[in-house]
Give the backbone structure.
Amino acid sequence: MMMQQFEFHKAVILHTRAYRETSLIVEFFTEKLGRITAVAKGAKRAKSPFRGILQPFVPLQIQFSGRRELQTLRDAQIHGELLKLQGPALLSSLYLNELLLKLLAKEDPHPELFIAYQITLTALSQSQSIEVNLRCFELQLLKELGYELQLEYCQNQPVQAECYYHYQYDKGLLAADLTQAAETKAYPFLGANLLALAKQKFSNRSQLQDAKHLLRYVISQILGHKIINSRALFE
């Protein structure tokens, strides 16, 4: 596929790896073209114009060219404010990158997700609630991938705040029978917590715990055998 050549694109780096002796393979998430892979020739040389800027979370504008899956990076410039990410905020940001790298198809544009990613990174750099920001981003990611969760209705009936529900990946919400929950090992979600997740408004720890459990379950189903390695860093 012929890519748009020599036009500047807003981009962030999801991952880099060594390529031959002096170059890098860079996984970019771009605003208009989605995820692309490019080789940055000579990037590891001391006098390379790319040296020092091809890092995750650095806001960039890039130019590239090529006809196949592996593009050639022509230019890269810092384009925006550098964020200070450290500790749990840095680990959370690495988690976001890994989700995008493993779930987004190449050359599939998601401009709204690109904006949501930047907003989330900024919030994390400002020490805003990590759990809330991660859950909201995961919801947006699922929506962009075509897996938007329906959490306000169960089998065409409104979810009741005081009731409990199970969630099955292929069926959605199901009314929970708590007397059988221990036998089936199905996780019971409180209706009020599901409604809070749907509105992305969290007021207590229980809501965030249920949100994390549900979103992790759905994402793991989409990932299949792929493993999110950054989760181990949290643990």
Notes: Strands lie at 9-19, 23-30, 34-40, 60-65, 70-78, 153-154, 157-158, 164-168, 172-175, 189-190. The chain has a mean pLDDT of 91. The first helix runs from residue 88 to 103. Helices lie at 88-103, 111-125, 130-144, 178-184, 191-199, 205-223, 230-234.
